[in-house]
Design brief:
The complex is a heterodimer of chains A (173) and B (190). By secondary structure, chain A is an all-alpha fold. Chain A contains 7 helices and no strands. In chain A, 50% of the residues are buried. Chain B has 190 residues and is mainly alpha-helical. Classes of the chains: A mainly alpha (173), B mainly alpha (190). At the A-B interface, helix 1, helix 3, helix 4, helix 5 and helix 6 of A face helix 1, helix 2, helix 3, helix 4 and helix 5 of B.
C-alpha cells in the first residue's frame, strides 16, 4: 500500500513538472526512479527507453507503466500511469480556460505567434531524434523518403504508412 | 464550449475509438502522434478546423506532460465537455499502458528477435516521414519570414546547443509577447 502511494506521488510530481514533453521529461523520470527511489538500475532504465521507442504512445506513459509494474504489479502500473497523466490533464484544462477567454486579446495572439515557430521546431526536433536512432540502414532512409512523398502526394491515412513499413521491415529486412 | 453537452454516448464512443487508434499506432513518442491526431480529428472526422487544432497544440505544448495526452484532453473537452476530456485521456493512454504491461510482464522475450527489431526500424522510418509532414503542414499555413527564421533558430539551439525543449517554448512565448508589446508601443508613438 505504501509503495502504491509513493508511486502515485512520484509520477504525479513527474507529470506536474514534466514541461517540454517526451524526451525532455526523461531526465526527470531517471532522477526519480533510478537515483531517488532506486527502483531500477541505470542499465535497466536505458533498456526501457529502447523498449519505449518501439512501443506505441508517449514515452513518459510507457516508462510510468513499466516502472509501476516492476515495483507493485498491475496496480502499481495503473497508479503510476494515472499519476503521470492526471496533473498535466488538470493543468492543461485550466490554462485552456483562461486562454480561451482571452483568445482575441492581442497578448494571447502574440504568444501564439511566438509559439508557432517553437511548435514547428519541436516537431522537427522530434523527427531528428527518431531519425538519429533509426537511420542506421539505407533501407530505413528509403522507407522514410517513400512515406514522405506518399504522405504529401497521395494523402492516405498515416496509419497505412506505419502498417506498410512494418510489413516491409518484417518480411524483407 | 461549442460542442454538445456531456452524456452523448455515441460521440464519446467514437471519440474513444479514434483516440485509442491514435494511441495504438503511434510508435516513437508524443510528437509522432500529432499527424495521426490531425488526420483523425481534423481531416477525417471534421471535428475541428486546422486553426482550432493549431491553438490546441499551442496550449498542449505550453503545459507540462506529454503533448499527445494534453491535446486529446483538450479535443475531448471541446467536443463533449468533461466526460470528453476524460475519454480523450483514457483513449490515448490505454493502448500504451496495455502494450507496456505486456512488455513488463515478459521482458526481453520479444524485443531481441531480429525480425521484430527490423520491423520496428522500418516503422521508425515511416514515423520520421509522418512527423516531418506534420511540421511541413504547419509551415505551409504560416510561411512568413519571422516564423521561418525563428523556427530555424529554435531548431538549431536544440540540436547544437542542446537547449531543453521547454526553454524553447518559453522563448517562443517571450518573443511573441515582446513583439506584441513593441507593436503596441509603435502604434502609440506614431
Amino acid at each position: 500500500m505504501a509503495a502504491i502511494l509513493v508511486l502515485f506521488q512520484t509520477f504525479f510530481t513527474i507529470g506536474l513538472f514534466g514541461f517540454g514533453g517526451g524526451y525532455a521529461i526523461l531526465p526527470l523520470i531517471q532522477r526519480q526512479t533510478v537515483d531517488v527511489h532506486g527502483w531500477m538500475s541505470l542499465r535497466e532504465f536505458a533498456d526501457i527507453l529502447a523498449v519505449a521507442q518501439m512501443t506505441p504512445g508517449p514515452v513518459a506513459i510507457n516508462t510510468a507503466t513499466y516502472v509501476g509494474y516492476r515495483v507493485a504489479g498491475f496496480w502499481g502500473a495503473s497508479v503510476a500511469t494515472t499519476g503521470v497523466v492526471l496533473a498535466p490533464a488538470l493543468v492543461v484544462v485550466m490554462v485552456s480556460r483562461v486562454a480561451t477567454r482571452y483568445l482575441h486579446s492581442g497578448w494571447v495572439q502574440g504568444a501564439f505567434n511566438g509559439l508557432r515557430p517553437a511548435l514547428i521546431a519541436l516537431i522537427l526536433y522530434s523527427a531528428y531524434s527518431v531519425a538519429l536512432v533509426s537511420f542506421e540502414r539505407w533501407v530505413v532512409v528509403a522507407i522514410a523518403a517513400v512515406a514522405l512523398i506518399g504522405a504529401n502526394v497521395l494523402r492516405f491515412s498515416p496509419l497505412w504508412y506505419i502498417v506498410a513499413a512494418a510489413a516491409v521491415g518484417g518480411v524483407f529486412l | 464550449m461549442t460542442g454538445p453537452a456531456g452524456g452523448n454516448i455515441r460521440l464519446l464512443t467514437t471519440l474513444f475509438a479514434r483516440f485509442f487508434r491514435v494511441g495504438l499506432f503511434t510508435i516513437g513518442g508524443g510528437y509522432a502522434m500529432v499527424p495521426v491526431i490531425e488526420h483523425e480529428v481534423v481531416r477525417k472526422a471534421g471535428w475541428l478546423s486546422a486553426t482550432e487544432f493549431e491553438h490546441i497544440l499551442f496550449l498542449a505544448q505550453s503545459c507540462p506532460g506529454p503533448i499527445a495526452v494534453n491535446s486529446s484532453v483538450l479535443i475531448g473537452r471541446k467536443l463533449a465537455g468533461r466526460p470528453g476530456a476524460f475519454i480523450g485521456a483514457l483513449g490515448t493512454t490505454l493502448p500504451s499502458f496495455l502494450v507496456m504491461l505486456v512488455f513488463a510482464a515478459f521482458v526481453g522475450t520479444i524485443a531481441t528477435h531480429p525480425r521484430i527489431i527490423a520491423t520496428f526500424a522500418a516503422v521508425r522510418g515511416a514515423i520520421v516521414a509522418l512527423i516531418v509532414t506534420a511540421a511541413w503542414r504547419l509551415v505551409r499555413r504560416n510561411h512568413d519570414l519571422a516564423t521561418l527564421v525563428l523556427t530555424a533558430a529554435f531548431l538549431s539551439l536544440m540540436i547544437w546547443v542542446e537547449v531543453n525543449p521547454f526553454l524553447i517554448v518559453v522563448a517562443g512565448i517571450a518573443v511573441g509577447v515582446l513583439r506584441h508589446a513593441a507593436d503596441r508601443l509603435r502604434g502609440r508613438v506614431g
